[in-house]
# Entry
Amino acid sequence: MSILKEFKTFAMRGNVVDRAVGIIIGAAFGKIVSSLVNDVIMPPIGLLVGNVNFTDIKITLRHAITATDGSVIPAVTMQIGNFIQTLVDFTIIAFAIFMMIRTINTLNRKTKAEESPAPAAPPQPSNEEKLLAEIRDILKRQG
# Structure
């Protein structure tokens, strides 16, 4: 089998195509959630906390320095606000994925319950088994 045919077989398998679609949709979903957090959720929270813009929250480790030659060495900061927004992004994405998987699992359980046939009735005993059971019962009564 040539490399191209083998690659085509590999690339067109259901799992690979499904994963590619999932990754693309996941990336778009991540952008939507980031916008939701940054543009819709965090501003009211910042307002409630006291007019705080979370992206402005940072810890300055070293202030900007102007060197003797006139060049500016930028400040070194820890962007705590960005980290908080990323945590909120993650929480919302994780919850949305959890709810989606929970819904899919519920639908799968319902589908499997509908597809599985009712258990078959146990087979009727043969004539020999009926006769042996009668003999056993007679012997119990006599003994």
About this structure: The domain at 3-114 is CATH 1.10.1200.120 (Non-ribosomal Peptide Synthetase Peptidyl Carrier Protein; Chain A). The first strand starts at residue 59 and ends at 62. The mean pLDDT is 83.
